UniProtKB/TrEMBL annotation:
The chain crosses the membrane at residues 42-59. This is Uncharacterized protein. It comes from the Bacteria. Residues 1-32 are annotated as: Disordered. Keywords: Membrane, Transmembrane, Transmembrane helix.
Length: 164
């Protein structure tokens, strides 16, 4: 090979090297653009998913109220229920004798509080809705098992029913 052939060969190689570098850089650029587009697409999907999840959480928290937040105790002589939130009914049974009474103490702070006192499957001897704070007695005319039911609708308060 002559010197001119070697020089020409080096020039051709160097041209190929330059072309390879350009192609390589263009390939990297294309791959980078493709990855960026994919990344933007994934970020967009994640953003939409997170926004939808946030809406669901918000709607769930707005639509549901706590059923009960408070304390309740009861035995053979009383039923005591104090609540910051009552959105349900609780019952307690007392075995009563003829001539006894049930002492009722209600502290209504908000919402609606209802009370029912009923002997077995008979008509209730007392039923009150949207009760306000009060103290009163309910007389028992016949012996038997009485069901005391306290119901609340977004209610806050304290109800104590005591056998006397």
């Amino acid at each position: 090979m002559s010197i001119e052939d070697k020089d020409m060969s080096e020039i051709i190689e160097s041209d190929f090297d330059e072309a390879d570098k350009r192609n390589s850089q263009e390939g990297v650029s294309r791959r980078r653009n493709k990855v960026m587009k994919m990344g933007n697409s994934i970020r967009g999907r994640v953003s939409v998913f997170l926004a939808a999840l946030l809406v669901v959480v918000f709607l769930c928290s707005c639509g549901s109220d706590a059923t009960f937040d408070g304390s309740k105790t009861g035995d053979e002589n009383h039923f005591d229920i104090e609540f910051n939130m009552l959105n349900t009914s609780y019952t307690h049974e007392l075995e009563m004798k003829e001539g006894e009474s049930i002492d009722v103490h209600i502290e209504a702070q908000s919402g609606n509080i209802s009370l029912s006192i009923q002997k077995e499957n008979e008509t209730p001897i007392y039923r009150g809705n949207k009760l306000e704070s009060a103290d009163f007695k309910v007389g028992v005319e016949s012996s038997g098992k009485y069901t005391l039911t306290v119901t609340g609708q977004k209610a806050k308060g304290h109800v104590v029913l005591t056998r006397e």
